[in-house]
Amino acid sequence: MAGLTVSGDTHPILKDDYASEWMGIEVVALDDGHATIRMPLRQEMLNGFGMAHGGMIFAFGDTAFALACNPANPDPADEGNITVASGVDINFLKPAFRGQVLTAVANRRASTGRSGLYDIQIYAADPVAGTAPDTAPSPAATAHAATVPGELPTDILPGELVAEFRGRSRTISKK
């Protein structure tokens, strides 16, 4: 997938995240308490009904959640800490299908002490005309616009809302 893809250079938690790499996740925007990511749905991500496997949608939402919870450039005082899920809920609203591009928008709703609450909306859209069915639009095909936290970049067609993911986080020591 072309563009800003998953790597440790994008966010330190992605350095050894082979699952997100395999999924083909592209990081679109990162900010304090916010992340927008996208990925194409490939054949091996489908269930026996020919639609996106719920586990794939969950894992995709979980990656957006993790990126929103953990700063890309932590303060020196916070370098020994990580933020992890203490619990999550997901509601599947509509199916998504092979060739569609999923976009997840994660936003912090509340943060108190070491606990946080995040909402992640997951959308599915048909690929932009002229792109292969199993690829997301490349930067050459779209001009990335500045992102306002909590809003989709203007170059992304979000499609239909297919899932709502709510995550509860807890900051802990890395040890």
Protein structure class: mainly beta
- Strand element count: 6
Taking the sheet with the most strands, its summary is: 6 strands, antiparallel
Mean pLDDT: 85
**CATH-wise, what's the superfamily?**
Hotdog Thioesterase
Shape, principal axes of CA atoms: globular
Number of domains: 1
Distinct helical segment count: 2
SSE pattern = HEEHEEEE
Query: What is the gyration radius calculated from CA atoms?
Result: 16 Å
Please report which band the strand proportion falls in: under 5%, 5-15%, 15-25%, 25-35%, 35-45% or over 45%: 35-45%
CATH architectural designation: Roll
The CATH class assignment is: Alpha Beta
Segments where pLDDT lies below 50 for 5+ residues? 132-147
CATH T-level fold name: Thiol Ester Dehydrase, Chain A
- Strand order, largest beta sheet: 1-2-4-5-6-3
Distance between the termini: 34 Å
Provide a descriptive summary of the structure in words.
With 175 residues, this protein is mainly β. It has a single domain, classed as Thiol Ester Dehydrase, Chain A (Roll). Helix content is 13%, strand content 35%. The protein has a six-stranded antiparallel sheet, with helices on one face. A hairpin with a 2-residue loop joins strand 1 and strand 2. About 9% of the residues have low confidence.
